[in-house]
Automatic annotation (TrEMBL):
It is found in: Cell membrane. This is ComEC family competence protein. The keyword Repressor does not apply. GO terms for cellular component: plasma membrane. The chain crosses the membrane at residues 7-26, 250-273, 285-303, 309-326, 354-370, 390-413, 433-455, 462-478, 490-507, 514-530. The keyword Transmembrane applies. It comes from Candidatus Deianiraea vastatrix. Pfam families: Competence (PF03772).
Length: 655
């Protein structure tokens, strides 16, 4: 146990994560006075006492820190939200971000003024979807534009615990969405200067260079996604194929990109300075190179829009570079633990972000899983020839890809209800292609673009060819019939148990790590025995999906393809078809659904039917006021409209 002492301190941020979950999911929200008292008491006990009391105090300290950080963050985001739809209004505002796409562009405006509305009741920012035909002139960050549009409240989730765009946007100070209906007029060109404006305009410049010099639309979209984080130029079909092939992690700006760019910058800067004997003799070129690498990677992070996976990688790499500056060594587990703690303390809501969950777990799996494998390979095959080293490299890619896949499968299933079966094979070719060819060529082309020598055109032609190979791998892998599997919804407690199990398994070094297998087994069992959904009731009356003979059917055409895709994934079915008349007559009569276990009434006044003698579970959706008297006579489950709206849908499970 003494050997694991340092690692035990590394898992303390897990208790901060638990505090955040308690705040957001279980509404544990004590006052600031109680939180301050708890923090002070835990801190004092952690200093004064030893052994078991000290450990308990540290656990309580980190747990309360999670609750306190969540409460502060929640209260600090206090701005107006669009509550009702506004039609045919003129809007003027300053451009903050521009995300161009194939047919439409997304533009975020701030300092918004509107006609016929009180500006004080408007949120700080609104995101608009603008058809490219309405954009007649070049737009840049800082421009003040005017156009006619419709504005809507932020969309709510369509299923319990599904992705909540409304909550995510709220923390970005975006309080509504809009759709343009007229040409965009530039009222005033950008005059503001500053770092943020400079970064935004650099990002726009890079996108324009790619758009001009890469002819293949999909290759152009991949280049933009890799280097500026703009996926708007990729068709949905291409994105789906990349996901099915298990290559979507390469498309997202993440640790791979930041690490390669930072390491390349560090190596190039050090090599250039080593050419000068004066620099080598009078300066520590290693430390200077570390500073340059940190600055370059930070600029790239800003240009990409600071995705959480890239932010994680930047912090980890910066800690390593700071260690070089201070002539200190680093421990990978401590670095990832400190990085995780800093991120969730600064933005606690990110704990529910799929990117953060998969990014950290993949890195933790690679650190903990590859450690014993690397030692074995080095001890046994370290002195092999070039052919042996090439084989070991391919083997390392194969194993590391498998470890990262295993570590992220629970989160992929929980959020997307599918995982790739061919990802292991496709990554063997795609990972080195992206790492050693596509990203370096992209960086070189961007640097040459800034010099205006025309050499970037040649490099971008080569880059386009390499991306075409990447896309060929994705298309070929996705065409395999068994390329991916759809898995029905996973309970949140299973995800939590997976997380605890993987942290113990990958963090500890001694045999104690195998304790982590127990919560993983429990998570699998809970997922397997999870009851099936009998019926799913949406916010719109026609959105109803029900179970018949092991297959899910829709009562009628669902209101949107997005909702249909989410519900299909949650029930573990590739397609939900509309039920025929015979099936509908078996379960539905008037505004009632009934099977052998439950009865569900929709919008019915209580007309005297003897509901209490069904002998089944009874649910009344959006009931009339008389339901209060009914509840006194028998047990019924009341489902109000606001509950369905808040959760996204109401789901009844088998018992």
């Amino acid at each position: 146990m003494s050997q694991e002492r340092d690692n035990l301190f590394s898992i303390l941020p897990v208790f901060t994560m638990c505090g955040i979950i308690l705040f957001y999911k279980y509404n544990i929200r004590p006052s600031f006075e109680i939180l301050c008292l708890s923090l002070i008491t835990s801190f004092i006990f952690a200093i004064i006492y030893h052994k078991i009391i000290q450990k308990i105090a540290l656990v309580m300290l980190f747990l309360v820190l999670g609750i306190a950080a969540s409460k502060y963050r929640y209260l600090s985001i206090n701005h107006h939200l669009i509550k009702r739809s506004l039609s045919n209004i003129n809007v003027a505002g300053e451009i903050v971000n521009i995300y161009s796409g194939l047919d439409t562009s997304k533009i975020v405006l701030q300092n918004i003024s509107v006609d016929k509305e009180n500006r004080s009741n408007f949120p700080p920012k609104i995101q608009f979807k603008i058809d490219n035909k309405y954009i007649k002139t070049k737009l840049q960050s800082g421009d003040i534009i005017d156009f006619n549009c419709d504005i809507f409240p932020l969309p709510r989730p369509v299923y319990p615990n599904a992705y909540n765009f409304s909550e995510v946007s709220r923390y970005k100070s975006i309080g509504g969405i809009g759709i343009a209906k007229s040409d965009v007029v530039v009222v005033k060109n950008a005059k503001k200067t500053g770092f943020n404006m400079m970064i935004e305009n650099i990002r726009i410049f890079i996108d324009e260079r790619f758009a001009k010099n890469i002819e293949n639309p999909d290759a152009r979209g991949v280049a933009m996604a890799l280097f500026t984080g703009n996926k708007g130029h990729l068709s949905q079909e291409t994105l789906n194929d990349i996901k099915k092939a298990g290559l979507s992690h390469l498309l997202a700006i993440s640790g791979i990109h930041i690490s390669i760019i930072a390491l390349s910058t560090f190596s190039i800067a050090r090599w250039i300075m080593s050419l000068s004997s004066y620099m080598t003799l009078h300066f520590d070129i290693k430390k200077i190179s570390a500073i340059i690498a940190m600055i370059v990677s930070f600029i790239h992070l800003e240009i990409s829009g600071i995705p959480i996976s890239a932010f994680r990688s930047f912090i980890m790499f910066s800690i390593g570079l700071i260690a070089i500056l201070l002539d200190k060594s680093t421990c990978s587990i401590r670095v990832i633990s400190a990085t995780f703690f800093c991120i969730i303390l600064h933005k606690p809501e990110q704990i529910f972000d799929p990117s953060l969950q998969m990014s950290f777990m993949a890195v933790l799996g690679l650190i903990g899983g590859m450690r014993p494998i690397s030692k074995f390979i080095e001890n046994r095959y370290g002195d092999g020839g070039r052919l042996m080293k090439l084989g070991l490299y391919i083997f390392a890619i194969l194993i590391s890809s498998k470890i990262a896949t295993i570590a992220t499968i629970p989160y992929t299933i929980y959020h997307f209800n599918q995982y790739s079966n061919v990802g292991l094979l496709s990554n063997i070719v795609a990972v080195p292609l992206v790492e050693f060819l596509i990203i370096p060529l992209g960086v070189i082309s961007i640097l040459l673009s800034g010099l205006f020598l025309g050499l970037d055109v040649i490099v971008m032609k080569i880059l386009s060819f390499m991306i075409s190979i990447f896309l060929y791998i994705a298309y070929t892998s996705a065409d395999v019939k068994w390329s991916y599997s759809i898995v029905r919804e996973m309970p949140m407690v299973s995800v939590f148990l997976y997380t605890i199990g993987f942290i113990i398994l990958f963090t500890m070094r001694t045999k104690i790590r195998f304790i982590g297998i127990f919560p993983i087994i429990c998570a699998i069992l809970l997922h397997v025995i999870q009851p099936k959904q009998i019926i799913i009731i949406g916010k719109i009356e026609k959105d109803v999906v029900f179970l018949h003979d092991g297959i899910y059917y829709a009562k009628e055409q669902l209101s949107s393809d997005f909702l249909k895709n989410i519900w299909q994934g949650r029930v573990g079915q590739s397609d939900v078809m509309i039920a025929d008349k015979e099936i509908l007559n078996k379960y539905f009569s008037k505004d009632k659904f009934e099977n052998e276990n439950i009865v569900v009434y929709f919008n019915l006044p209580l007309d005297g039917e003897n509901i209490c003698k069904h002998g089944k579970r009874v649910y009344i959706v959006n009931p009339s006021p008389e339901y209060k008297n009914l509840r006194k006579r028998c047990k019924v489950n009341i489902v109000k409209k606001w509950q369905i709206t808040a959760q996204g849908a109401f789901v009844i499970y088998e018992h």
